[in-house]
Amino acid sequence: MRSSRMRVLALRVGDEPLQWPRQGGILTLTHAENPAQERPAARDWRRGIERAGPALLIVLLVVLWQILTRAFDIPNFLLPAPTDIARLMVNEWPLIQMHSLATIGSIVSGYITAVLFALAISALMIRLPLVERLIMPIFVGLQSVPKIAIAPLILVWVGAGMGSKVAVVVSIAFFPIVINTMAGFKEVDRGLADVFRSVDANERQMFFRLRLPYAMPYIFAGLRIATTLAVLGAIVAEWLAASNGLGYLVLSGSFNFNTARSFAAIIVLAVIGTTFFALMSWLERAISWKREGSDSTTQV
Predict the structure, then answer these.
(1) How far is CA 288 from CA 55, 119, 220, in A?
(2) Model confidence over 55-107: pLDDT tens digits?
(3) Measured between alpha carbons, how far is 212 from 215 in angstroms, rounded to an integer?
């Protein structure tokens, strides 16, 4: 029979089988495995590895740290083992918590002040180009000076305490917000600006309905940079003149050869900075029009 002469090979390319006539019959190419079913599983597996990779690397480094400190019998005042640091954090948690709250308060207060000041001065500069030409060179000159050199002057003018911490944080954190915000305001599509002008939109409508939404990804890029700088500013202020805060705790541990306490304060600082950065990245994904996952640096 004609149907008995038909031969079937197993091979499939894509979702549809390939068919062509051969000696009066039909040769059908199929494949034993369905790639359409494997691709999502492979993608999920790779995504899980990428997400768990940083945590696994940290665990590996901590285990290596523990083994090396025990193997070489390194004194605790030089390099304490992770278990010693963990034990100190448990025993002295009330002390660490008190200093952490002081540092978080100065970071949040200085960061919010820097954001408000930077957005207000950026809006003024984009509205009045003469103001930008007058004060932008001053901002650039001040930013080029190391803040560790300006901080003692701030302490003299403001005095030790919460005011000096906030002032140092503002002096460090506001500049990247200004630069990124101005870049976003100036990158507005010219065609959209012409459309707004064609319908006789005023400057307020141009700002709130065109420039500000268009500049949101740029603004959040500056805000994310400022999060880490705000932590740095708070620590600089606490090193110079403070009686509380994690910066003060790091110095206290070093002066008393209690290196485990210094490491504990540094670990808490890293957690605070990472959490602050992740919070700002989440806020960006919730508010900005930028597509999720388009910038891997926003993910922690």
Answers:
(1) 28, 16, 8
(2) 888 899 999 999 999 898 888 888 999 999 999 999 999 999 999 999 999 99
(3) 5
Q: Any idea which residue has 């999502």 for tokens?
A: 40
Given a contact cutoff of 8 angstroms between Cβ atoms, the answer to whether 251 and 103 are in contact is no
Among the residue ranges 160-169, 219-228, 291-300, the one predicted with the least confidence is 291-300
Neighbours of 177 (CB within 10 A): 28
Q: Is the pTM of this model over 0.70?
A: yes
pLDDT score recorded for residue 206: 85
Q: How far apart are the first and last CA of the chain?
A: 66
Q: Between the CA of residue 96 and those of 160, 207, 264, 281, what are the distances in Å?
A: 21, 45, 8, 27
Please give the C-alpha separations between residue 76 and each of 7, 63, 105, 259, in angstroms, as whole numbers: 77, 17, 31, 7
Q: H helices within 128-241, ranges in order?
A: 129-143, 147-158, 162-186, 190-198, 203-206, 212-240
CA 118, CA 124: separation in Å to the nearest integer?
10
CA neighbor of 185 nearest in space, from 253, 131, 119, 239: 119
